[in-house]
Amino acid sequence: MSLNVLGLTFSAVVFLGIFIAVAVAGMKIYRKIRSISRQAFGTENILEGFRQMEVENSTTPKSVAGMTSLYLPKIKKDFPEFQYDEMKVRAENALTSYLLAISSMNPSFLKEGGQELRDHLSMKLAMLREEEVRETYRDIKIHRTELANYRKRNGRCIVTFQSSLQSFYTKTDRSGKLLAGNAQLYTQTKYNVDVIYIQDRELVEKETDLSLGLNCPNCGAPISTLGSKVCEYCGTPIVELNIYAWTFSNIEEV
User: How far apart are CA 62 and CA 59, in angstroms?
Assistant: First the structure.
């Protein structure tokens, strides 16, 4: 047998050995993947497992920061007239109409909200037009809404509602190509909706610090905190003479 033949035979043996080793390793990896898929998804087909997970995620509502029991007593202490159930419905309507305004590219669909929120919506629509994309929300359903925060800042009292919702959300370019979302599966998400308390809206909009000067009718001390019902100096109940309003100022996905 010539050296060339021996060399070819040796090479063939080495190649066969490598092939067998790779095949064995591949089988082990394949079995491992099947085992992991079976444990994680209940099926040995990992692609089917990911598909099942995608479907499950599309039907599982996002959890919300349920802080109503903590913040509502504080709000009611500052604002005894605050109607939680009514304001929650208004917050949900504001959120739904905001998303419909984006879907239709028409700001007039926004049914609740002050100038701040309307300006925010206008900037959002302008950005979509500039990028030549559309965002669409169909079959919007709100699962749950709770209070998520209550704070006082820059002369405003800000109540934040958080809502979890589902919709058929899609983002497409000018040719209709899908860039994000899914037209067949629900997208689960959640949003924060801010509603602010202001006194004498026209005056507030003209004040750079958004604060108003109220004084105690008994001792004349300044009332420094919006929402105060009792003078902190003499304890006299405060009857607010200014017209006040709650208005929605911001909506954002979280």
Answer: 10
CATH topology of domain 62-253: Nuclear Transport Factor 2; Chain: A, (3.10.450)
User: 71 is written with which tokens?
Assistant: 């913040």
Position with higher pLDDT, 95 vs 33:
95
What is the C-alpha to C-alpha distance for residues 219 and 221, in angstroms, rounded to an integer?
6
Integer Cα distance of 68 and 82 in angstroms: 13
Q: Which residue stretches of 42-162 are H helix?
A: 46-59, 68-78, 84-104, 115-131
Please tell me the pTM assigned to this model. Answer: 0.69
* Euclidean distance between CA atoms 28 and 180, whole angstroms: 36
20-32: pLDDT as tens digits? 777 777 777 777 7
Name the residue type at position 42.
Answer: G
Return the SS3 of 178. strand
Residue 222 has pLDDT above 70, yes or no: no
Cβ-based neighbours of 97, under 8 Å, separated by 6 or more: 109, 110, 111, 112
Contacts of residue 75, Cβ cutoff 8 Å, sequence gap at least 6 = 82, 84, 147, 150, 159
The half-sphere exposure of 200 on its side-chain side, counting CA atoms within 13 A, is: 12
